[in-house]
Amino acid sequence: MGKRILILGATGTLGNPVTRHLADRDHSLRILTRSVEKTRKMFDDMAEIVEGDSTNRIHIENAIDGCDAVHISLPTESELVAVRHVTKSFAARNMNLISYVSGTSVREENRGFRLIDVKMRSEDLIRNSDIPYVIFRPTWVMEVLHKFVQGNKAAVISSRNSTGIHFFAAADFGRMVASAYEDERVLGKRLFIHGPESIILPEALETLLEACYPHVKVVHLKLWQARLIAGLTGRMDSVSQLIQYFDKVGELGDPSEANTILGAPSTTFGDWIKCQEKPRE
């Protein structure tokens, strides 16, 4: 029997495929969103769509009413507040599951990076709530590479991390999360999500640009140059911070448990590239 699931962050890069895969498995979905029109165009009648802000306690309480699970996939600036509201609201109800999207390198020693600190605090709230949970710790999603293209320019930022990143496809992640809602083995787990192959960031970017953005001007930057541009213009700030962070700590976590329980991501980088929409000339 399907669950009644509240989705927070359904329109995001990772929230979108999760929503679609859950709907395909006949779960009843409710999406809390600040943009009803945008969300309705994206999902049509796939889910009940209610207007609200995930950082607003009253909106969360109203949206949770009648649901027995919630999936949280939100940006850094809103996720901690949302998790706090969700756990408090869930405590007063008989809820089945909280699923939360964290990150592959979320560890105590990395809390100096703001994103990691927020995710650690969010994880702690969930784990201490006495509510059944599963925490996903994904590495880089392939779709994030498109964010390096800004208008008619694209930045290829050098990385010192020669070991590469196990990029995964968003669709594979959506399938894995949907599978977790039907498998009790995930309860109380923190599951690392890594793609099937390792590729260094500049190589991944070059491949994407050649295949999908052949007319875009490519600018090659060292990390310090990207950080300078971000400081002056605000562009590429989050991406350059993430690269700087991964250069320092590397890709962490063992995906074997997630692969065993949920089935490993199968989309290779080459397969993903073939499926990307080519821009009009």
Please give a quick description of this structure.
This protein is α/β, with parallel strands linked by helices. Helices cover 42% and strands 17% of the residues.
SSE diagram, text form:
Blueprint: E1 4-8, H1 15-24, E2 28-33, H2 36-43, E3 48-51, H3 57-64, E4 69-72, H4 76-91, E5 97-101, H5 114-127, E6 133-138, E7 149-150, E8 153-157, H6 170-180, E9 189-193, H7 201-212, E10 217-221, H8 223-233, H9 237-249, H10 256-262, H11 269-275
Helix pairs in contact: 1-6, 3-4, 4-5, 8-9
Describe this structure in words.
By secondary structure, this protein is an alpha/beta fold. It has a domain at 4-140 and 169-194 and 251-265: Rossmann fold, CATH 3.40.50. Helix content is 42%, strand content 17%. It has helices at 15-24, 36-43, 57-64, 76-91, 114-127, 170-180, 201-212, 223-233, 237-249, 256-262, 269-275, and strands at 4-8, 28-33, 48-51, 69-72, 97-101, 133-138, 149-150, 153-157, 189-193, 217-221. Strands 3-2-1-4-5-6-9 form a 7-stranded parallel β-sheet, sandwiched between helices. Strands 7-8-10 form a 3-stranded mixed β-sheet. Helix 1 crosses helix 6. The longest helix is centred in the N-terminal third of the chain and has 16 residues, at 76-91. The radius of gyration is 19 Å and the shape is globular.
Keywords:
alpha/beta; Rossmann fold; three-stranded mixed sheet
SSE string, helix = H, strand = E? EHEHEHEHEHEEEHEHEHHHH
What is the count of DSSP helices, taking H or I runs of 4+ residues? 11
Runs with pLDDT <50, length 5+? none
Count the E strands: 10
Write the CATH architecture name of the domain at 4-140 and 169-194 and 251-265. Answer: 3-Layer(aba) Sandwich
Structural class: alpha/beta
CATH top-level class of the domain at 4-140 and 169-194 and 251-265: Alpha Beta
CATH names the topology of the domain at 4-140 and 169-194 and 251-265 as: Rossmann fold
Approximately how much helix is present in the residues? 40-55%
User: CATH H-level name of the domain at 4-140 and 169-194 and 251-265... which superfamily?
Assistant: NAD(P)-binding Rossmann-like Domain
What's the main sheet like?
7 strands, parallel
Kindly report the average pLDDT value: 88
Distance between the termini: 48 Å
Question: Judging from the principal axes of the Cα atoms, what is the shape?
Answer: globular
Q: Strand share of the residues?
A: 15-25%
Strands of the biggest beta sheet: in what spatial order?
3-2-1-4-5-6-9
Instruction: Using the CA coordinates, give the radius of gyration.
Output: 19 Å
